[in-house]
Amino acid sequence: MPVVDRKTRTFLGLVSLNDLLKARARHLEEERRREQPLKFRFFFPGRGAGAELSEGR
Fold first, then answer.
1. Which terminal residue of the chain has fewer beta carbons within 10 Å of its beta carbon, N or C?
2. Are 4 and 10 in contact (CB under 8 A)?
3. Is the pLDDT of residue 45 over 90?
4. H or E stretch including 30?
5. Closest-CA residue to 13 (of 22, 23, 21, 2)
6. What is the pTM of this model?
7. Is residue 5 scored above 90 in pLDDT?
8. Where does the pLDDT of residue 35 fall: very low under 50, low under 70, confident under 90, or very high at 90 and above?
9. Coil, strand or helix: which one is 10?
10. Do 18 and 25 touch, CB atoms closer than 8 A?
11. Do the beta carbons of residue 42 and residue 53 sit within 8 Å?
12. Residue 44: burial class (beta carbons within 10 Å; 0-12, 13-18, 19+)
C-alpha cells in the first residue's frame, strides 16, 4: 500500500502486509498482558494465612 502526503501528493513510502500483521500481533500481545487475571491473597480464619481466593474453598 503506498503512503502519500494528502496536500502535496508526494510519495512517502510503502506499508506492506507484513507490517500490518506485525502491528496486529504486537497489539494482541499487549492486550493479553493487560488482561491477565490478578491473584489476591486473603486471610481466611482456619485455613491459614495466604490462602488464595481462586482456590474456591
1. C
2. yes
3. no
4. helix 17-34
5. 2
6. 0.45
7. yes
8. confident
9. coil
10. no
11. yes
12. middle
